[in-house]
Design goal:
five-stranded antiparallel β-sheet
């Protein structure tokens, strides 16, 4: 069970702070003895009440060390393209990666869409709307969790810095890309 003050990932809402674990008075449908988490989304407005035994995905955010390790692995995480071109098939493929709530899968999704968009741009086409929506949400979820885990501003991570360091030209050695990414990320580890 999570405690007051914990930062957690709640479904596809992203990072939330547990403000209370209580049986809320006056909440419609809530029994007097049933415990709820009172969650405040860190990067959105509002408050969420969810039973502690709900079947909704919840987990602690990454630790600082796990976030740093993930950043170091970004250049090595491979794309996971979908074989079909059907928009429903693509959307289901992207949803399946997001449903895992795993940061490696979010990186994989972002890199997959980034690669697909790069190909479309080379052909003189605009990125497809489906890709744009899923990439934006995956970036928000990933960068939000990394920012919370590292104790830095969301705006630092939700910037071109991860993109340019994670997807350099293919001529660069993987170890060099990894060193650049870790070094650049370490420059931002100072709290604002």
């Amino acid at each position: 069970m999570f405690q007051k003050g914990d930062l957690i990932v709640y479904g596809n809402m992203g990072v939330c702070r547990v403000e209370a674990v209580e049986a809320p008075a006056g909440l419609p449908g809530a029994g007097e003895k049933k415990l709820y988490y009172k969650l405040d989304p860190v990067y959105e407005t509002g408050t969420v009440y969810i039973p502690v035994d709900a079947k909704v995905f919840m987990r602690p955010i990454l630790t600082h060390a796990q976030a740093e390790a993930l950043i170091g692995r970004i250049p090595e995480i491979e794309e996971n393209p979908c074989g079909g071109k059907d928009q429903q098939m693509l959307a289901e493929h992207y949803r399946s990666l997001m449903r895992t709530h795993d940061c490696d899968d979010l990186v994989q999704l972002i890199k997959t869409i980034y690669g697909k968009n790069r190909e479309r741009t080379a052909q003189g086409k605009k990125p497809a709307r489906t890709e744009a929506e899923y990439m934006k949400r995956a970036e928000e979820l990933l960068h939000g969790e990394l920012a919370a885990a590292l104790g830095i501003s969301f705006s630092i991570l939700f910037s071109p810095f991860l993109m340019t360091l994670s997807y350099p030209s293919n001529t660069l050695d993987v170890n060099l890309r990894k060193k650049r990414l870790c070094h650049k990320a370490s420059l931002f580890l100072i709290k604002e």
